[in-house]
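Tokens for chain A. Residues wanted.
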């Protein structure tokens, strides 16, 4: 089973982040380089616009893949994100309205991994919990 981000949230975030990146590029290219001729601030805004664009690309490649033996959170960038499926005893979402931080917990209550649950949606996390055979605490 492969879980992808909720389409509505994914596209809403894509539009928002691309508007932010476009605004920064507009500010960097026109306002600062052409009118004020300040390279330092333009460089910072250009790098920031590149960061927002990278977030958009990364969000479209995000997934949770579960097979018979492992749970993989992707894409894998800087740390190990593959865990034994049997380690997860329950999935618990926090009450934070912005991120709905979701924890994959062991039977002793320790954290296996955490992810912003708002991007997966309640239905997606429920399907994942059902597939794993563990309870979802929302």
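Reply:
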């Amino acid at each position: 089973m492969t879980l992808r981000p909720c389409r509505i949230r994914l596209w809403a975030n894509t539009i928002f982040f691309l508007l932010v990146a476009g605004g920064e590029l507009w500010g960097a290219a026109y306002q600062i380089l052409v009118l004020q001729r300040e390279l330092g601030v333009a460089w910072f805004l250009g790098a920031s616009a590149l960061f927002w664009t990278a977030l958009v690309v990364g969000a479209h490649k995000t997934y949770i893949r579960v097979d018979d033996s492992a749970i993989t959170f992707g894409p894998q960038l800087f740390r190990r994100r593959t865990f034994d499926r049997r380690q997860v005893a329950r999935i618990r979402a926090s009450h934070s309205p912005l991120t709905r931080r979701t924890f994959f917990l062991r039977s002793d209550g320790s954290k296996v991994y955490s992810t912003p649950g708002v991007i997966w949606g309640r239905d997606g996390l429920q399907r994942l919990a059902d597939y794993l055979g563990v309870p979802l605490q929302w």
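The longest strand covers residues 111-116. The first helix runs from residue 7 to 36.
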